[in-house]
Structures are given as structure tokens and as C-alpha cells.
Design a protein that fits this description.
single chain; 7 helices; disordered N terminus
Length: 666
């Protein structure tokens, strides 16, 4: 990199490109190094993303300590980090996610990582807890998905096709339209089709992405466009009897009506990174997203039209021992929801027509100071203002407007290098999550102005160790989170959900990662063993519901522990990996009277690399759930039975299944 004090206008285009690359939106948050980050951190490289099948991110995320991704179907997922987000019934909440500088988290706080294809992710970073004021102060943390892969830019074209059990086949292609020192442009497409293991579980998804980066004089332009269309049937969850006796079955009510969701979505972001004077860089991004959703349920049919837009601006100052970043993010989210009748007496009749508008404003700043080379000190804050406007179109001009009180979330952290191999770190910070529109709206459609944002303080200490000669690395973190105004979802009827605050909770746990490069002779000859582990206790401190005191009860939907052992090897021309995971028991309801037992699961994959007429090729074969264990891949907390039905807690996981594919790189 060039001397930061050298005037930008004296640099050549090539040097400008090298300078901008270091702070470009390719890397949404620039840290000194993972070893020096003052907080919980996990990363997934592009090579690690390729260790499973071509369309499932669950296995890669579940190898990270403190992270749990439960997957009911390809479009029904829930990710929790350190137990945060476990009470959201059928989606991921309380965790923010970005694809480059494009927010994947919508105005309601919901995130759908599965809508981004694996071939559109270069690598991933996870900052755990309310650790990144630059990207809000989400209680669970932030997931940063980098859209560009340097490995992918080295080739002009790549094609991959994969087939698997249950009529599953996927196809992916990437065409690099431009790849020069001044920029790159690529077109990526993908399709996934499956008949599904269960009744009423066919799934079709199509993705197309145009993305690029370009040096424009002293500036750096980047852009992302993504189109998605999917139609997936919904088998829903099962009660205990069907889960044990007939896991292929769909819930009768969903199967009888042929429940499904059909969604089309467009996303666009444009960013410009500009040097200002010698040590200043400004990164400006505008983004927009539109989507339409048609979802058929046993109780009604949902038509949803959503559009959102916003901007991010971040100004960075860098000196020898000091870095400062300050900026703002503004997002406006509009959602028009219509509910239609599906029963014989009201088929097609409009039941409700509501427009929701949510405005979110964030001001953020981060200061990083290195008084000596071994010590990093960090101070940051995020200031948030969130407001709603709800318009019931059936009630004429009846509108409800409400703004939550502003929330200031500070954070302090440090990282100190004890020895050439050892770093210790610690942090404390405040986080919050505003209620979604669904949580803030009562069953009668009125807005609950008494509901409050979920807030909490997080404390963590840890150590990282890496010894290149011994080829050993380790990472251990202890954390404590104290929450208040916990948001819980109540379900009074099959079609009535609403949220309320549930007092105080305490989350505490231990996360650990240990790796050993048993063989590391050349880039084409290595053998690695990695062990990840976490254990946690997540309890109510104060929660009284309908006169029942739940103090010291465990929060449901959070495994007590999770262990993953992975062996990966590369002995040219072969690669292989074997992963065994143990998911601990978890409670299913607040009273802790229902519990789901622990289970084991083993996966493996082997690849063979070869060359045909200058075409690099890979053929591979893999298997999931090798020992055919029966398990629930996702649970529904506090499920209720209506009428004479049993509560449906369980989404059956896939039995033993195989996949194989061929990839060509030109």
C-alpha cells in the first residue's frame, strides 16, 4: 500500500486501486486482523463454503461456536447467536446481515440468508453480540457476507451441476465479463429444484446476479444487482406422534390446502468510495429492494408487496496509530399486506388490507487507537431512532403513527498481545432490537404502544492462540448478556400472533475453537482437524405470564451445547472432509415441561480434481446424515394445539441422503 500521507491526486490509477481496495465495500468492516478484533469473531472462507452441497449454508454455520441454524425447510430457517433470536417462530430475527453494503435485514428485523446463493458469497464474517456499532447494535450480532471471491475472479467461466436424493438438482454458472487491474464485472446464475423428502415440499428457486467493481480515476465504484424467484410448498411442523411414526408426512391442514409461498425479489446497491485529502476516505452507498409474496396458509392467503430503500455513508480517517469511522444509515421500508379468505364461506374475500411504513435512522462512530503495537483500544456507539406508521385501508383514513424512544448503544473493547502467539481481549456493549410490525400489532389490528424494544448489556473476555510451528490455533470466549423487555410471541389462535415484553433474562456461555494442522507440507498436501464447542445457560430472571412465574426456567429453542469435529484433507488430486456434530438437548416451552433430546449427525464429502484440455474440473460425491439418525432439524417453541390437535413442535430432518456433482472452470 502507498504512503497514506501522499496526496491522492499524485497516485497512479494502479496505486489508487490498491489503496481503495483496502477499505472498499468488498470488506464491509475493516479490522486489523481477526486476532486483534476486541470481541467474539468467526469467519468462513470461500474454501469452507464448498465443503458441503451446493445450496445449504446450515452445516457451515453450525460449525461455528455459539451459532445455531435450525432449518425446517429450504425457506424456513432460524439462526441464533448466543441464544438471541430463539423465540422467533419461523424466521431469523435479532441478527443483522449484510451482503456487501446491502442490508439483507428488512424493516421488520427479519433476515433470510438462504435467499443468497452460495455462488454469490465469497466469504463470511460473524461478529457476535452487539459488537459492531458500524452495522447497528443488534443483540445477536452481525453477519457480513462478502459478494466477491478473488479465486472466482481468476477464471473466466465456471459451471457446476449437482444432483442428489429426493429429486434434488442444482445448476450454477459464473461468467466473468471483465477482469483487469482497473475492475471486474461478473454475471452469476443459479437454479435449485427438489421434490422434497416430505409431502407438500417441492421447492424451485432461481437466482441471477450482476456484480462489479471499477476504478474511476481516484474513485472506486461497486455495484450489486440480484434477482430471485422461488416457489416452495410448505409442509409445516408435526406433532410428536407423526414425527415418530411418519416424518414424511406434511401437517394435514397444510397438505389439504396445498400450502405454498411464491416470492419474487429485486435488490440493487451502488457504492462509491472516494479518497479525500491524504488520510480521509468516504464510502457512500444507496440501496433498494422490492419483493412480492403470495403465501397460501390453512387460515388465510397472504399477499405482500414490499419496497424499501436507503443509504449508508461512512467517513474514515486513518493515521499511524489511530482510526476513526463515523457515518449514518437510513432505511425506509414500506409493506402492503392483504389477507384473503380461504374457507368455503369466505373464499377470496378480503379480510384485511393494511399498509405498514417503518423508518430507521442510525448514526454510528468507531474509534480505534493503538498506543503501542501490542494494544488495540476501541470505543464505539450507535444511535437509533425507529418509527412506524400503520394504515388500515378498510378503515378509511385511520392511521397510527408511533416512534420508539431513541436508543444510544455504546461499546468499549480492547485487545492485547501477550506473546507472539497469544492475544487476550474483552468488551462490553449495549444492544437492542425494536419490535417487528407483527409483534407490535394486536390481534384486532390495533397498535400496541406499550410494547418496548428489547435491550441488554453484553460482557465478554477471551483469548486467541496461534503457533505456526506447532501448527495449532485456539480461540476461547466467555460471555454474559443481561436482557430486559425480552420480546416473546403469543399465539391465541391458529391465525393470531402478537408480541409482548417478558421481563428479564440472562444469557451466559463458553465458546471454544481448537485447530491442528496435522500435515501442512505444501498447498496441495495438508490434513487438518478442527473442534468447535459451545455451552450456554439462558434463563428467565423475571417473567410472569398469566400468573405463572417462570423465574430460573430455561429459555426454549436453544441447545444446551453443540460440538462439531471436522477433518479436512488435501492430497492432490483428492480432497475430502468428514464432519460429526452433536446437538445438545433443548426445552420446547417456557415451563420446561417439554424437552427435545440431543442427537448426533455425520456428513462427508470427497472430491477429485483433474484437467482436460486446459479445463480445470472437479467431480465430487457427498453424503449427509450417514448413520441415518432421526432428528428434528428445527423446533417450534411454545407450540399450541387447537381443538383436539396435539401441539406441532417438530420439523423432521432429512434421513441419509447423497449428492454428487461436476464443476468445470475455464
Amino acid at each position: 500500500m502507498s504512503n497514506p500521507s501522499e496526496p491522492r491526486d499524485t497516485l497512479t490509477s494502479k496505486l489508487t486501486h490498491q489503496y481503495i481496495q483496502e477499505i472498499s465495500v468488498q470488506a464491509p468492516i475493516k479490522i486489523l486482523s481477526p486476532k486483534q478484533w476486541p470481541g467474539g469473531y468467526s469467519g468462513i472462507s470461500n474454501a469452507q463454503l464448498q465443503l458441503g452441497n451446493a445450496h445449504n449454508l446450515q452445516e457451515q454455520l453450525n460449525k461455528l461456536p455459539g451459532v445455531v441454524m435450525q432449518q425446517g425447510t429450504m425457506s424456513t430457517n432460524r439462526i441464533t447467536i448466543r441464544g438471541i433470536g430463539s423465540r422467533t417462530p419461523y424466521q431469523t430475527n435479532r441478527i443483522k446481515a449484510y451482503w456487501g453494503q446491502m442490508p439483507l435485514t428488512d424493516g421488520d428485523g427479519a433476515t433470510a440468508l438462504e435467499d443468497i446463493g452460495l455462488n454469490d458469497i465469497g466469504s463470511m464474517e460473524l461478529l457476535k453480540g452487539p459488537a459492531s456499532s458500524l452495522y447497528g447494535a443488534g443483540l445477536g450480532g452481525v453477519i457480513l457476507m462478502h459478494p466477491f471471491s478473488q479465486d472466482g475472479l481468476k477464471r473466466k467461466t465456471s459451471i457446476k451441476s449437482e444432483i442428489g436424493s429426493f429429486g434434488t438438482h442444482s445448476h450454477h454458472a459464473q461468467l466473468n465479463l471483465k477482469n483487469t487491474n482497473s475492475g471486474n464485472i461478473s454475471l452469476v446464475g443459479g437454479a435449485i429444484n427438489t421434490d422434497g423428502y416430505r409431502q407438500n415440499s417441492t421447492y424451485r428457486r432461481y437466482n441471477a446476479t450482476l456484480k462489479g467493481q471499477q476504478v474511476l480515476g481516484a474513485h472506486y465504484l461497486n455495484f450489486l444487482y440480484n434477482f430471485l424467484h422461488l416457489k416452495g410448498e410448505i409442509p409445516s411442523s408435526l406433532d410428536s406422534l407423526d414425527f415418530k411414526r411418519n416424518p414424511k408426512k406434511a401437517a394435514s391442514s397444510w397438505n389439504n390446502i396445498g400450502g405454498y409461498e411464491e416470492n419474487s425479489r429485486h435488490m440493487l446497491s451502488l457504492g462509491l468510495v472516494s479518497p479525500i485529502k491524504s488520510n480521509w476516505v468516504n464510502a457512500f452507498t444507496v440501496f433498494a429492494k422490492t419483493s412480492t409474496l403470495d403465501e397460501l396458509r390453512p387460515f388465510n392467503r397472504l399477499n405482500e408487496n414490499r419496497y424499501s430503500y436507503g443509504l449508508r455513508n461512512k467517513l474514515t480517517f486513518t493515521a499511524a496509530q489511530f482510526k476513526a469511522e463515523v457515518g449514518t444509515e437510513i432505511m425506509i421500508d414500506n409493506n402492503n399486506i392483504s389477507l384473503l379468505g380461504v374457507k368455503q364461506d369466505n373464499l377470496g374475500q378480503k379480510l384485511n388490507d393494511t399498509e405498514h411504513r417503518r423508518q430507521t435512522y442510525n448514526i454510528f462512530a468507531l474509534l480505534e487507537y493503538q498506543p503501542v503495537s501490542k494494544l488495540v483500544l476501541q470505543a464505539a456507539f450507535n444511535y437509533n431512532q425507529t418509527g412506524y406508521r400503520t394504515h388500515d385501508k378498510d378503515a378509511g383514513d385511520d392511521k397510527t403513527e408511533y416512534s420508539y424512544n431513541p436508543v444510544l448503544s455504546p461499546r468499549l473493547g480492547f485487545n492485547y498481545q501477550l506473546s507472539p502467539q497469544t492475544y487476550v481481549f474483552g468488551s462490553m456493549g449495549h444492544g437492542f432490537s425494536a419490535p417487528s410490525v407483527e409483534e407490535a400489532q394486536m390481534p384486532d389490528g390495533s397498535f400496541n404502544k406499550n410494547i418496548k424494544p428489547e435491550e441488554g448489556m453484553s460482557y465478554e473476555v477471551g483469548a486467541r492462540y496461534s503457533h505456526p510451528n506447532a501448527r495449532v490455533y485456539a480461540d476461547v470466549t466467555l460471555y454474559l448478556m443481561r436482557m430486559e423487555n425480552l420480546l416473546v410471541t403469543e399465539r391465541d389462535a391458529i391465525d393470531q400472533f402478537y408480541g409482548k415484553n417478558a421481563g428479564k433474562t440472562k444469557h451466559q456461555g463458553l465458546e471454544g475453537l481448537l485447530g491442528w494442522d496435522m500435515i501442512k507440507e505444501t498447498p496441495t498436501k495438508d490434513l487438518n482437524v478442527t473442534l468447535s464447542y459451545f455451552t450456554s445457560q439462558n434463563k428467565f430472571d423475571t417473567f410472569v405470564d398469566d400468573g405463572i412465574d417462570y423465574k430460573n426456567k430455561h429459555l426454549p429453542g436453544i441447545p444446551r451445547s453443540n460440538t462439531s469435529v471436522q477433518i479436512t484433507g488435501h492430497f492432490k488430486p483428492f480432497r475430502f472432509n468428514v464432519n460429526h456434530s452433536y446437538t445438545g438437548s433443548q426445552y420446547l416451552n417456557d415451563s420446561n415441561t417439554k424437552q427435545y433430546t440431543a442427537y448426533h449427525k455425520t456428513n462427508a464429502k470427497a472430491s477429485y480434481y483433474f484437467t482436460i484440455h486446459k479445463i480445470n474440473a472437479t467431480v465430487y460425491l457427498g453424503a449427509d446424515n450417514i448413520f441415518d439418525n432421526r432428528y428434528a432439524s428445527m423446533v417450534v417453541v411454545n407450540a399450541k394445539g387447537f381443538g383436539n390437535t396435539l401441539p406441532r413442535y417438530y420439523y423432521p430432518g432429512l434421513p441419509f441422503n447423497v449428492f454428487g456433482g461436476l464443476e468445470l472452470r475455464f
